[in-house]
Design goal:
- This protein is α/β, with parallel strands linked by helices.
- It folds into 3 domains: 52-328, inorganic pyrophosphatase (n-terminal core) (Alpha-Beta Complex), CATH 3.90.1640.30; 352-464, Diaminopimelate Epimerase, Chain A, domain 1, CATH 3.10.310; 471-569, OB fold (Dihydrolipoamide Acetyltransferase, E2P) (Beta Barrel).
- Helices cover 39% and strands 19% of the residues.
- Helix 12 (285-302) packs across helix 14.
- The longest helix is centred in the middle third of the chain and has 33 residues, at 317-349.
- It is globular, with a radius of gyration of 24 Å.
- The model has no long low-confidence stretch (mean pLDDT 94).
Length: 578
């Protein structure tokens, strides 16, 4: 059971935000998340960081402008996750808006099980042969959400006479590929202040630069192109990739959500909402992360991400709905596979002494390679330990996907491991919180020990104690539908966490739902409110503190405030947010 830790805030900062028209409850929450000025919570598209500081953007824009004006063949090489799929759709839709001819524009997304990640020489050859399209060899390749580590692939493409533009956001290695242009806010020498762009955000910025380059040439399509129509896709990819929601990303997501709520988004997103049984009019950032993102990711995990990209590119609602239904079916299959793997993993974990284990590595040759990342995330959440889960390829190598906890930068940990054990990891890459790698199957026992050893060195002891950050107690006057709506409209996510509160309540009523959920009616002073605790039927006592999210229950067209209980603890006395 996690302990609770209350977020601190500056009374002065909260007061200053209130003086600028921010609701008192939101002012407290923003102050606790490091917001100092009203400008930092702006959602105006005009307040986006200008693109000029993105290193390589001008070179990429000029190359793409030449390709469009001269009618060259362009191929977008995408990654097979939700960020890659949305980035691909943004690239294709955006290049089309800017005047690229449809018969000169195509995309390629690799099969994760056969071709792996990134622009490899094998993928270059397939693209050149037009293996999944009748089009001839492209003149220009543009990668989205990949490519920063593709040294051999870029060299091979150049040798075959293709120009290469890389758009990526992953952390680079010590050597960059010799591409014609690289747009990545995390590359050395890039002064762009928002380092947290997802791959789809980098592609969106590349299109902004391209539009400017084409306008300078008097290109008619660029004068009329409204790139804001792509923000629904940018929002989906940004949230689904779990990148930190800094001020710039929050602007992108806020404007994308606004388009979804107004139903001015692409048919594919409307179709994904339909199969998820949710209304886009009430779109929240959590929908993108927990409802739409998993369905889109299911294509790359279980089958072929082209299904997801085709859904996002569909202009006909009927076609989009058909593809979304297939994504929904794949997601149900993924959940079934995950449940089986989770059960098998539990048997392995029962043999571990978690208190003596810093980093967890698991492998089973029967596990599905498309689901290991999800399983790693589940174990990480359950045990609060950095976790890597491997699946085999049947050819002597195993591929792992890892998830980390605050306090350990996973990619840096793997980099450190390669220095301690130079021949152990064949290749790796990723972020602070997620990474992927490949090792030899015979080396798994060594990796298991080495990873635990490296994590033990790098992960501070206090970071191994799981705690839940809360925003204090909600006052009686804030336990209402108005406050719930304010919170629902916020842009919350990685690095800007959704508000969670902690109160002691009087338990008035309780009952079970489906024998596995607990439904309560609780009271704070004179205020009564419903509460629900999913997958736990343990009844709290009057002395317990409930950590909860203030949510909205939509039922039969009626909205009511509801507490979604996340944890029950004793011995914690939260301070009021009022």
């Amino acid at each position: 059971m996690p302990s609770l830790k209350q977020r601190a805030w500056s009374e002065r900062t909260a007061w200053r935000l209130q003086q600028n028209g921010v609701h008192p409850l939101l002012a407290r929450l923003y102050a606790a998340r490091g917001i100092q000025t009203p400008e930092q919570i702006s959602t105006r598209i005009e307040d986006l960081v200008p693109p000029g500081a993105l290193k390589g953007l001008n070179e990429a824009a000029q190359l793409l402008a030449d390709a469009i004006v001269n009618g060259q063949r362009i191929c977008v090489v995408a990654d097979y996750d939700a960020d890659g799929a949305t980035a691909c759709a943004v690239a294709l839709r955006g290049l089309g808006l800017l005047g690229a001819k449809p018969d000169r524009l195509r995309y390629f997304v690799p099969d994760r099980f056969k071709l792996g990640y990134g622009l490899t020489p094998a993928i270059v050859d397939l693209v050149a042969q037009g293996s999944n399209s009748p089009a001839a060899k492209p003149d220009l390749l543009i990668t989205v959400d990949n490519g920063i580590a593709s040294i051999d692939g870029v060299a091979h493409a150049k040798a075959r006479g293709m120009s290469v533009v890389i758009t990526d956001h992953h952390l680079p290695g010590s050597t960059l590929p010799a591409a014609d242009a690289i747009v990545n806010p995390n590359q050395p020498g890039c002064d762009f202040p928002s380092k947290n762009l997802a791959g789809v955000g980098v592609m969106f910025y590349t299109l902004i630069g391209l539009r400017q380059a084409l306008r300078q040439r008097g290109w008619a399509a660029a004068e009329q192109a409204n790139l804001g129509t792509l923000l629904d896709l940018v929002a989906l990819g940004t949230i689904a990739d779990v990148v930190p929601l800094d001020a710039n990303n929050r602007i992108l997501v806020a404007n994308g959500l606004a388009r979804i709520r107004q139903r001015r988004c692409c048919p594919g997103i409307l179709a994904l909402y339909a199969v998820a049984g949710k209304q886009p009019d009430r779109a929240q950032s959590t929908d993108l992360g927990f409802l739409l993102g998993p369905r889109l990711n299911a294509a790359g995990r279980m089958d072929d991400m082209r299904i997801g990209i085709r859904c996002l590119l569909a202009d006909d609602m009927g076609e989009a709905l058909k593809l979304a239904q297939e994504l929904d079916r794949l997601n149900m299959t993924r959940r079934s596979v995950e449940a089986q793997m989770k059960s098998e993993a539990a048997s392995i974990l029962n043999q571990l002494d978690i208190h003596a284990t810093a980093g967890i590595s698991l492998y089973d040759p029967t596990w599905h390679g498309g689901v290991v990342g999800i399983l790693a995330g589940r174990i990480k959440e359950q045990l609060h330990r950095p976790t890597i889960v491997f699946a085999g390829d049947g050819q002597g190598e195993i591929k792992g996907s890892g998830r980390s906890i605050p306090g350990l930068h996973l990619r840096d940990a793997l980099d450190h491991l390669t220095k301690c054990y130079p021949d152990l990891i064949l290749k790796f890459g990723g972020h602070a919180m997620a990474a992927g790698l490949t090792i030899r199957e015979c080396d798994f026992p060594l990796f298991q020990r080495a990873f635990d050893e490296v994590v033990d060195q790098l992960l501070p002891l206090d970071a191994r104690q799981q705690s839940l950050a809360v925003d204090g107690a909600l006052g009686e006057g804030d336990l209402n539908l108005h406050s719930a709506r304010l919170l629902a409209e916020g842009i919350w996510g990685q690095g800007f966490p959704a508000p969670m509160f902690a109160n002691k309540f009087q338990i008035l009523e309780s009952r079970l739902l489906q024998e596995k959920h607990l439904k309560l009616t609780v009271a704070s002073g004179t205020q009564r409110i419903d509460a629900i605790r999913f997958n736990d039927t343990t009844l709290p006592t009057q002395d317990d503190t409930l950590a909860y999210v203030l949510d909205i229950n939509h039922y039969n067209g009626v909205e009511r405030p509801q507490l979604r209980i996340e944890a029950v603890v004793s011995g914690f006395n939260p301070a009021s947010t009022g």
